[in-house]
Amino acid sequence: MTSSLPRTPKSVAAAGALAAVLFATAAAQEPQHLNDPRLARLDTAARSLVAVAIDSARAAGLPTEPLVQRALEGATKDAPGTLIVSAVQRLAADLGRARAALGASATSPELEAGAAALRAGAGPAVLAQLRRSRRQTITVPLAVLTDLVASGVPVDSAAAAVLALAASARDADLIDFRRAVERDIALGAAPTAATAAAAAGVFGANALDVNAGARGARPGRP
Predict the structure, then answer these.
(1) Can you count the helices (H) and strands (E) in the chain?
(2) pLDDT tens across 105-126, in order?
(3) Residue 106 in 3-state DSSP?
C-alpha cells in the first residue's frame, strides 16, 4: 500500500494560497450586478444574463442604471425572461452606438437620449451633427427629436427641424416647439405641416422650411 506524502507547512501554505487565488478568480468572473437586490424580481436565468449585460456595459464605460430600469420595467409587465434579457441587451447596444456617435465626453443623460433617438430611427450621423452644432448639452434636442417621431412626424423631417433649430434655440424654446407641434397634430394638422408651422410660431416666420407648400394657418386658429 502506498503511503501518502506528509504535508509540510510549506505545502499547506501553498495549497491555501492556491485556494485563495481560485476563489478570487471565481468571484471576479461572477457578474457583480448578480447580487443587486432589485434584480431578484427576475428568474434565475434572466437575472444572470442581465447581470452579465450590465457588467459588460459598466466595463465599457456606459451608464448601467438605464439597463437596470429596463429590466425592472419588463419584470413589472410580467414579460418573459428571454424578452427582458433581449431588451436589456438591445439597450446596451444602443447606448454603445450613441456613445460612438456623440463621443467619449457624452454624459449619461445624453447617451440615454441618443439611444432613444436611434431607436426612433435617427441615424448616427444625425447625432454626430447635432453634437457639432451645439456647445451646451444636447439631451433636450435629442428628446424633442424622439418625441416628434413618436407624434407621427417623419424622422427625416423631425431631424431636419431639430438640427435647424438646436444651434441657436434654448432648451425651453425647443420644448415649446415640441408642444406646439403636438398640439397642432392633435387639432388635425399633418405632422410635417405642424412641424413647420410650430417652428414659425416659436422661432419666427423663416425659422424652418420643412414643407413650405404645406405650411398654413394652424387648425382651429384664425
Answers:
(1) 10, 0
(2) 999 999 999 999 999 999 999 9
(3) coil
Cell 435629442, residue?
A: 142
Query: In this structure, are residues 153 and 144 in contact, taking their beta carbons and an 8 Å threshold?
Result: no
- Please name the residues in contact with 219: beta carbons below 8 A apart, sequence gap of 6 or more: 184, 187, 188, 189
- Tell me the backbone φ, ψ of residue 204, rounded to 5 degrees: 115, 160
Q: What is the distance in angstroms between the CA of the first residue and the CA of the last residue of the chain?
A: 107
Which residue bears the cell 425659422?
207
Q: Where are the domains of the chain?
A: 35-102, 112-222
Q: Give the dihedral sign, CA 107/112/113/119.
A: positive
What is the reported pTM? Answer: 0.75
Name the residue with cell 408651422: 197
